[in-house]
UniProtKB/TrEMBL annotation:
One of its GO terms (biological process) is phosphorelay signal transduction system. InterPro entries: Bact_response_regulator, CheY-like_superfamily, Sig_transdc_resp-reg_receiver. Residues 24-137 form the Response regulatory domain. CDD domains: REC. PANTHER family: RESPONSE REGULATORY DOMAIN-CONTAINING PROTEIN (PTHR44591:SF3), STRESS RESPONSE REGULATOR PROTEIN 1 (PTHR44591). Keywords: Phosphoprotein. Gene3D superfamilies: 3.40.50.2300. The modification 4-aspartylphosphate is found at D73. PROSITE patterns: RESPONSE_REGULATORY (PS50110). SMART domains: REC. The keyword Phosphoprotein applies. This is Response regulator receiver domain-containing protein.
Length: 239
């Protein structure tokens, strides 16, 4: 279905059950697993979703389309999401809502300082919490009037998306070994693991980040992470 036809067939006014109906959300997120969670949250809320996995892809998208809401993860492969938040906050006309997103401490302060209207802390799987974050930043008249159905459902992303994230990191570990890529791998895995509830992987990723920050040897950390990643991929291989 083309965008124009879909727009004609989609009701524009939000409803108590689908309070984000009629809105388009651009999610700038490099993790497939986190993006799948956001897709389900948007779908259940009535919003249409588009995705970009880097600053470059997001800027390219924004040259063509104008979403109502942009949700920007701060840790992206080609820079900090705070750069894009600052650009969106200064643009005229301005996107209605710009939200930062991260699971790292201090990320909310960084997002707000860059110009974000609000912040989403990862992991987020509650439909009610997601809707509240977005609706609290929307302009007057953009939300349904009167009582709203508060849905306490939780979304569960497809585990195949999580496998895609681990395969992505396995590829990076086998082909890239620069300092920058190791910092990216550490923050990426920490975020994915936090979203998936994988405490072992999150601890390993944070240990790598700490060792690099303190100037300590980190080769053993990289080897440990590589083993954990492979252990999470191997059981799912098709023979």
């Amino acid at each position: 279905m083309t965008d124009s036809l879909e727009a004609l067939l989609t009701p524009k006014s939000p409803t108590p059950e689908r309070p984000l109906l009629g809105l388009t959300v651009l999610v700038v997120e490099d993790s497939r697993f986190a993006s799948e969670a956001m897709r389900l949250l948007c779908l259940r809320s009535g919003a249409r979703i588009r995705r970009a996995d880097s600053l470059h892809a997001a800027r390219k998208h924004l040259r063509v389309y104008r979403p109502n809401v942009v949700i920007v993860d701060l840790g992206l492969p080609d820079g900090s999401g705070s750069e894009l938040i600052g650009e969106l906050a200064a643009a005229r006309p301005r996107v209605e809502v710009v939200l930062g997103m991260s699971g790292d401490s201090g990320a909310e302060e960084l997002s707000i300082a860059a110009g974000a209207d609000g912040f989403i802390e990862k992991p987020i799987s509650s439909l009610a919490a997601f809707q509240h974050r977005v609706m609290s930043c929307l302009p007057d008249g953009a939300c349904p009037q009167g009582l709203r159905v508060v849905n306490d459902d939780m979304v569960n992303p497809d585990p195949i998306a999580l496998q895609d994230d681990f395969v992505h990191i396995a590829d990076l570990l086998s082909t890239e070994r620069g300092d920058g890529i190791l910092d990216y791998i550490a923050q990426f895995l920490a975020g994915v693991a936090r979203t998936a509830g994988d405490s072992e992987m999150e601890t390993a990723a944070n240990d790598l980040a700490d060792h690099r920050q303190q100037g300590l040897p980190y080769e053993a950390n990289v080897a440990h992470i590589a083993g954990l990643v492979q252990a999470r991929i191997e059981p799912h291989k098709v023979v």
